[in-house]
Amino acid sequence: MVVTLSDAPVLETARLVIRSPQAGDEAALIPFAMSERAKFVGGSTDCDLGKAWRIFAIMAGHWVARGYGTFVFCDHNSGRPIGSAGPWFPGNWPEQELGWTIWDAADEGRGLAFEAMVAIRDHAFGALGWTTAVSYIDPCNVRSRALAERLGCTLDNTAPVPHTDIPTVVYRHPALGGAT
């Protein structure tokens, strides 16, 4: 049985179905979380199965706690989960964030995260009523910084960061949510 967050919206683009996490997505997320590719988002090669599974559970639980959360974006034709992206606002975050991950390196460089983020940001600024959003990015995460800039975000050196002990740069999203 596949249980879903039935009240969660489903967004679609030309290549993607963007939906809330559901049972089965952990099969794609867990290998990512346990790899070096996840070092900027709380995972790594020393992440065990239990921690990786909790990352998935936290992602799903945010939807229940906040009424919105990180979406899983999937290939429109096959339904294969590609990554996660979306609104994120844990209790200790100073501002609402829009974040993203691509779970398999083979899916990088195809504009999929950009495509997902344009639709999701429009949703956050529209349906959720957000008036501002940031993305907290490790300064060494060159790919995420490039995506933030492609999305029209600008560095905001005055914005507070969630963790003062973790290197973080803050990218501010354009006020109307559109990419430039």
Characterise the protein shown here:
- With about 180 residues, the chain is of the alpha+beta class.
- About 25% of the residues lie in helices and about 20% in strands.
- It has four helices and eight strands.
- A hairpin with a 5-residue loop joins strand 3 and strand 4 (about 80-90).
- Helix 1 crosses helix 2 (about 50-65).
- The longest helix has 18 residues, at about 50-65.
- The protein is globular.
- It starts with 10 loop residues before the first strand and ends in an 8-residue tail after the last strand.
Helical residues, percent:
25-40%
From the helix content, strand content and strand pairing, which structural class follows? alpha+beta
Global mean pLDDT: 88
Major β-sheet, in short?
Answer: 5 strands, antiparallel
Helices and strands, in order, run as: EEHHEEEHEHEE
Q: What's the Cα radius of gyration?
A: 15 Å
Overall spatial form: globular
What is the total tally of β strands?
Answer: 8
DSSP helical segment count: 4
| Widest sheet, order of strands | 1-2-3-4-5
Q: Extract low-pLDDT stretches.
A: none
- Please report which band the strand proportion falls in: under 5%, 5-15%, 15-25%, 25-35%, 35-45% or over 45%: 15-25%
The separation of the N and C termini measures 42 Å
Write the layout of secondary structure elements.
Blueprint: E1 11-12, E2 16-19, H1 26-33, H2 49-66, E3 71-75, E4 81-88, E5 97-102, H3 112-125, E6 134-137, H4 142-150, E7 154-155, E8 169-172
Antiparallel strand pairs: 1-2, 2-3, 3-4, 4-5, 6-8, 7-8
